[in-house]
Amino acid sequence: MKKILFLVATLTLCSCGKSKVETFLREKEPNITTLEIIEESKEDSAYTPYNTLLSLNMEYASIGADISKLREKAMQEESKDKVIMYLDSAINVHKKRSGEISKILFNCHRYISLPSICEEPFNRKFITAKYRLNGKLKEQRFFFNNDGKSIGHTDEDTKALYKEVETTAYGTLNIENEIIKDMRMIRGY
Question: What are the residue boundaries of the structural domains of the chain, listed by start?
């Protein structure tokens, strides 16, 4: 029991001097050799498309899976008409669903590139911090989780997630292009 109390007391004392930014960076970057927090702003509010990007990534992956299933069904059919029907359905599914969400992805890109033009309501608190990490000077915003207590992501995380969503979107587009090639081959042109 004494060991547990000692451990709790030690952890409490060790974490007292750390800012939320420092705590976040040390948890996120396990290979930190040096970290110096130079300046932290007061909490402010802004819009971040991070949750939207998470949803878009899942939606694009779902589209890719759905059109791949339709393509697989088409390849199992013996009737040329049924093959064309499945492939045509896959193309329509891709066009309809990706068309709806590509506008949202475009807006996310605008908000990442030009946060000052954002018309969305603020959805997160953040702290701007200037710090030196392993000798590199950086400055970025650190966004809090929905609970407002701990930091969940940064501007860099949002940009990286955008690139991941873009890659997933291009993956579904490549699947659609393969389906179009299949369709042309089956139709003979």
Answer: 23-187
